[in-house]
Specification:
With about 210 residues, the chain is of the alpha/beta class. The protein is built from six helices and 13 strands. Helix 2 packs across helix 3. It is globular, with a radius of gyration of 17 Å.
Length: about 210
């Protein structure tokens, strides 16, 4: 079974994405815009999460409401994923954040883990893996592999821009994991960067270009 890929078709997301792609967008504005897009993505990414009934005592009376049935865990892939996690946390402040550091070897284009802070019981949680760019798919696939070995089963991958090659990689390696993205671009260049893309999302977010 292959999980669905969802491309979020929303005029404000499209507008923010165009502004993000602009080479003259400052780091400060870049982070702001990524946060804008992340907040707009939250409702669709979480629309199928289970809720359970609860009772709520309002100032006037007791009523029946609903609360999320499972813990939400955000896993930003460092460091670019941090800009996405900020937007998700604005709308889901009770979410747990677990960091995972993966860097692409520029010679082999293969992912290498440099930071792992995943001492958490993922077995009952909804786990959202966040990375602005799904390029070769190597880092995303490795992140999902590591999380699965620690018991995560309710996984989703969220990005701003995906390449067809990255989507194909994830669908092959993790066909059970849904992909949510704001755009699917033309493809990769010989260095493994997405074209037309927006450059290096980590460098542009934190001003280290």
């Amino acid at each position: 079974m292959t999980a669905a890929m969802t491309v979020l078709d929303h005029p404000i997301i499209a507008d923010r994405l165009a502004r993000l792609r602009d080479k003259d967008c400052s780091s400060q504005h870049f982070r702001l815009l990524v946060g804008n897009v992340a907040r707009l993505m939250v409702p669709q990414v979480t629309s199928d999460l289970a809720a359970e009934p609860c009772e709520v005592e309002t100032p006037l009376e007791l009523m029946k409401g609903a609360r999320l049935a499972r813990q939400i865990v955000l896993v930003p892939i460092l460091r670019a994923g941090l800009s996405l996690s900020d937007g998700f946390l604005d709308l889901i402040p009770e979410a747990v954040v677990v960091h995972l550091g993966l860097a692409r070897n520029e010679k082999t284009l293969e992912p290498e883990t440099y930071y792992q802070n995943v001492k958490f019981d993922f077995t009952e949680a909804h786990v959202l893996v966040l990375d602005p760019m799904l390029a070769t798919g190597g880092s995303a696939a490795e992140a999902l592999r590591q999380l699965k070995t620690q018991g995560a089963t309710r996984l989703k991958f969220v990005c701003l821009i995906a390449s067809p090659e990255g989507v194909e990689c994830l669908e092959k390696e993790h066909p059970d994991v849904p992909i949510y993205t704001a755009a699917v671009d033309r493809g990769l260049n010989e260095l493994g960067y997405i074209y037309p893309g927006l450059g290096d999302a980590g460098d542009r977010s934190f001003g280290t270009m």
